[in-house]
Amino acid sequence: MNLINYGERFFDELEIAKYRRKEVSVDVELNQISMSSVGYRALTVIRGIKDKKIGIFIVDSDDEGEIKRGIEQAAKNAMANERDEKWVELPKEQKYNAPEIESNYEIKDASPDFFVNLLNDAIKDVRTRDKRAMVAGGAAGGSWLEMRILNSHGIDIMQEFGSTFMYLYVAGRMGNSVTPGIMDFDVRRDMNLDKNFIVSSILEKLKYAYTMKKSNKTEGNVIIEPLALAELLYFTLIPAINGERKVKNTTPLSDKVGQKILDEKITIYDDPWHPISTNPIIADDEGVAARVNKIFEKGIFKGFLWDNYWGNISGEGSTGNGTRNFSTGGIGIGVHNLVIESGNKEKEKLIGEIKDGFLISGFQGAHSSNPDTGDFSVVANPAFKIEDGKLVGSTVFMLSGNVYSLLGNVADISREQRKIVVMGNGVMPDMLFENLKIAPVSR
Amino acid sequence: MNLINYGERFFDELEIAKYRRKEVSVDVELNQISMSSVGYRALTVIRGIKDKKIGIFIVDSDDEGEIKRGIEQAAKNAMANERDEKWVELPKEQKYNAPEIESNYEIKDASPDFFVNLLNDAIKDVRTRDKRAMVAGGAAGGSWLEMRILNSHGIDIMQEFGSTFMYLYVAGRMGNSVTPGIMDFDVRRDMNLDKNFIVSSILEKLKYAYTMKKSNKTEGNVIIEPLALAELLYFTLIPAINGERKVKNTTPLSDKVGQKILDEKITIYDDPWHPISTNPIIADDEGVAARVNKIFEKGIFKGFLWDNYWGNISGEGSTGNGTRNFSTGGIGIGVHNLVIESGNKEKEKLIGEIKDGFLISGFQGAHSSNPDTGDFSVVANPAFKIEDGKLVGSTVFMLSGNVYSLLGNVADISREQRKIVVMGNGVMPDMLFENLKIAPVSR
């Protein structure tokens, strides 16, 4: 508490957040290991408040002298600023209720070698099993994060996590052209990355990618796979559950708590401790105790996510969703691990029961969705045509609509879930929608 | 040469590039100092070649043990790869011809304080001089880079540079709405950032931003300011002079060396040692001697820029334009400081002589230009209407065309030049174009 005491000379309230990260990463380009790397970063963020004036300082170091100089600089920054009359206070001391989840120290010591071998084996597998296939891109690696959050109200929480990832992006040669690229991945909190699953899943889809099916249908039964679902929700639903947007009145859910918004088959919660979560945090970036927050229960909207600042303003209090922006040092409201509850039917069965429809693996253009309304207009790519319960070829089409209408009418949800980290952090099933309106793409 | 000797056990050829960077930065948001930061980074990139197989390893460290382990890892990466039959060799020992340019050590020791005060003074100036103005964003800071490039052919070159920057982004309140944002900046290799120039230049333009002039003209005399010019060239002309594109035949300039391509008023060269350049390098990222490369002389295309790899393949040799990508560790072809030679007339006179026309300060959408053809379609914003030699209000319009047609017919070039770092690195004048076709924007 030495540094906190030092800081109290300058501030009414003070927070010191220290992060140390080690990252090992190996990249693949055109069937080759293009590079491997080991990255280290120590980062300390100081946030101090004096007379409701806020000062923030960031330094790439955890050296005591640097932090002391940083505290002084943060105080000078604060002095130069105007009062933020909305400021209430930093979080109070907390009780932490996280379940005991053991860190995997193998990840901390992982060498690039391990991932080089894994990727090389995967490249060989892909090219042996499909002579026309090439691994256009890919990567694998591990990251280890240690964080300690201290504040002048007595918060002092230390935590550490490791996770690993691997993805491959594969295309098939067809004369002078190539198939749409097919991607699959694995993300874990241990070293058991499932190379065989990734390769098999990609090659299974690649088979159909060689046959391009023109889509001139305007309606069909559609399965949206976990990654595509995450891409869509990240730009539509996730902003809408952010408490800051409730205060500023820029979410369509503003006065909808307790109302049925989505299909009753849908239950969504933010659960850092889900069995396949890769960040089972004890506390958020402000030291507030992490928890499981229900967001939709059987379609009924249960409430917003809050950090300390906006939670204090609204009177709802923090839900443990304070997330630090490492460029600005500031705290925003973030999802830790958005879980959509799984259904009962196997994905294979969902596909098997479709007579004439589509499977969507990814969306393009989701970033231009409108979070204020939930409206979106995206290109389904890669996507596949399903006939008589079987994939028969790849296709591309447009899907326009509104996320609340879409999720207001879900036909079924798969039993399987996937851990997603590309667009936000989540655990997502496949979802089946019946008689969805689609539009052909002119290509 | 210890580490090079160590690496020669594993490789036929070897390059070790070490970078140390210190960055001080202060950010402004809504009239406030939102944060200040001090960043440190040490980075070593190892590139080794064995039997024409290339291995690259990156580590956030300059520790000898880490680098030795990195050399071993790079060797393993290389072994796993296929031969690159196009590989010739790493650069040979060089003679360096750079002029003596002294580094400014004040920048190395600069504290955030200096920039906090500068920004606070600027914010005060802006708000005092225009009560409706608010500083929506801005930043100032300094960066110090030390780099050392070593290779097994005897290259061992050490260099260091410092530079400072400051920019402000200001909008004016008009009832419930705001004016288009006006930005200006300064970039230097000393500490004398010209706050007064930035503030005055912004407020001068802001005066006209309060008056929105609808533009229904379809043609006019247009001045494109330095930053807007850089934005356009970065996505059209600069890719076209890249030697890799010549080898791959993806530039419209492929077989045009010696031909007149641009207006004879235009002379363009890449000059790292220009008096207002902020990176007066002695050698590029491969240790190849830096030089001044003529690109267009009085409109005639003089030749492409090359790094070692593509220069060897083409037989033209490196022009000292090898630039390291810090994410991949690889080398690409980059411009160090693209200079467009200035003209004779003062900018004020250029404006003064326009009866009915436009001044363009920035472009939106330049990134979707087509570098293979030079075609572009951009929105001029911020832009200003000129009547009888005076700015009379702000406006927005579209400009579509081809960069070679545009630069094939230049009416005049300003005497003043600005140092640009936002889009590539350059020194740009203002350019006047007569009877340019424009299109209204529906907003």
Can you tell me about this structure?
Chain A is an alpha+beta fold and 443 residues long. Chain A folds into two domains: 2-207, 2-Layer Sandwich (PmbA/TldD fold), CATH 3.30.2290; 211-443, no CATH class. Chain A is 22% helix and 39% strand. The first copy, chain A, has eleven helices and 21 strands. Chain A has helices spanning 2-8, 64-80, 105-108, 112-129, 195-209, 226-235, 237-240, 243-248, 308-314, 347-352, 403-406, and strands spanning 13-29, 32-50, 53-59, 133-151, 156-174, 177-178, 182-188, 219-224, 268-270, 293-297, 300-301, 322-324, 331-333, 338-340, 356-360, 363-364, 375-387, 390-402, 412-420, 426-437, 439-440. In chain A, strands 8, 9, 10, 11, 14, 15, 16, 17, 18, 19, 20 and 21 form a twelve-stranded mixed beta sheet that branches. In chain A, strand 12 and strand 13 form a beta hairpin. In chain A, helix 4 runs parallel beside helix 5. The longest helix of chain A has 18 residues, at 112-129. The radius of gyration of chain A is 24 Å and the shape is globular. The model of chain A has no long low-confidence stretch (mean pLDDT 95). The A-B interface holds A 26-27, 31-41, 55-61, 66, 70, 73-74, 76-77, 80-82, 111-113, 116, 120, 328-330 and B 26-27, 31-41, 55-61, 66, 70, 73-74, 76-77, 80-82, 111-113, 116, 120, 328-330. Chains A, B: It holds the Pfam family PmbA_TldD_1st. Chains A, B: Residues 17-78 form the Metalloprotease TldD/E N-terminal domain. Chains A, B: Residues 221-439 form the Metalloprotease TldD/E C-terminal domain. Chains A, B: It comes from Aciduliprofundum boonei (strain DSM 19572 / T469). Chains A, B: GO terms for molecular function: metallopeptidase activity.
